[in-house]
Specification:
With 276 residues, the chain is of the alpha/beta class. It has a single domain, classed as TIM Barrel (Alpha-Beta Barrel). Helix content is 37%, strand content 12%. The strands form two sheets. The protein has a four-stranded parallel sheet, sandwiched between helices. The longest helix is centred in the C-terminal third of the chain and has 16 residues. The protein is globular and about 45 Å long. The chain starts with a strand and ends with a helix.
Length: 276
């Protein structure tokens, strides 16, 4: 099974949709399964993981409704306020849906970089661990030391780093990111999505070679059995088409992989991680 482990759908008319904003003209319109269908068919992708784009409980309902209507959606990674005392009840209800496969707090946009280490959040992280339920981590390199602290406290937490922790490829950011990713990768329960890199590069002038050192470092740190492919469509359209995202991956990673490792990267790892 070939899986795109990270993409989004949204409807601007949904009251809870606060992003994208109108200045992002390339993606400021509705994106729904029919818009992605041709790309999935062209690249022989069987299923996708649809990830929340809005920090609102109504986002879960919207995405789960789509998942019930479209077989191409293998699972959704939703949103809940993990600092809320209502989290246990909300989680207990949602986790029973067969296509609710993960939770993503939007750490990148929070004022408190250490939010995930707050006592009320950690209390709810324990619930995820007790249920062996995975967490997507949307972070920047500055958050990697915080994630390391989290993992040192909860070494069995199943987590995945979205978008390789968003290194600033345009400015060739490296040192802090390199060290942080290596340390986080020491925890066997953590995976990494090779996704979202084109939007961290120069949107108008990126080249295929810009991504190679970042992708190679992730592969060296996590190994072929702990990385996943994600297109980050339609956000990727700010800098690249779906085809170009595939080209970036093929040129900088896939050409050197064995058939077994390709199968893991393009589906096997995501299937195992999200239990789909």
């Amino acid at each position: 099974m070939k899986i795109d482990a990270h993409q989004h759908y949204w409807k601007l008319e949904n009251h809870h949709t606060v992003w994208p904003t109108s200045d992002l003209t390339a993606i400021y319109h509705n994106f729904l399964p029919a818009d992605l269908e041709a790309h999935l068919k062209q690249h022989s992708i069987d299923k996708t993981i649809v990830v929340q784009a809005s920090p609102d409980l109504r986002e879960n309902e919207f995405l789960l409704e789509l998942a019930e209507q479209h077989d191409s959606i293998g699972g959704i990674v939703g949103w809940m306020d993990m600092s809320s005392d209502q989290f246990p009840e909300q989680f207990a209800r949602l986790k029973n849906h067969p296509k609710f496969v993960g939770i993503r707090p939007m750490l990148q946009s929070m004022e408190d970089d250490r939010w995930i280490l707050r006592p009320e959040v950690q209390k709810n992280i324990k619930i995820l661990i007790e249920n062996d339920f995975p967490l997507d981590l949307l972070i920047y390199p500055k958050h990697l030391p915080v994630v390391l602290e989290l993992l040192e406290r909860f070494p069995t937490l199943r987590a995945v780093i979205d978008h390789c922790a968003k290194p600033n490829i345009k400015e060739k950011q490296w040192d802090q990111w390199e060290v942080g990713m290596e340390k986080v990768s020491k925890f066997d329960s953590v995976m990494c999505k090779i996704s979202g890199l084109v939007t961290e590069a120069d949107h108008q002038a990126w080249e295929l070679k810009d991504f190679k050192p970042y992708i190679e470092h992730v592969l060296n740190c996590f190994g072929a059995n702990r990385i996943m492919f994600g297109s980050d469509w339609p956000v990727c359209l700010l800098a690249a088409s779906y085809d170009e995202v595939i080209q970036v991956i093929n040129e900088n990673l896939v050409t050197e992989m064995s058939i077994k490792d390709k199968d893991l990267f393009f589906g096997g790892n995501a299937k195992q991680f999200y239990r789909i």
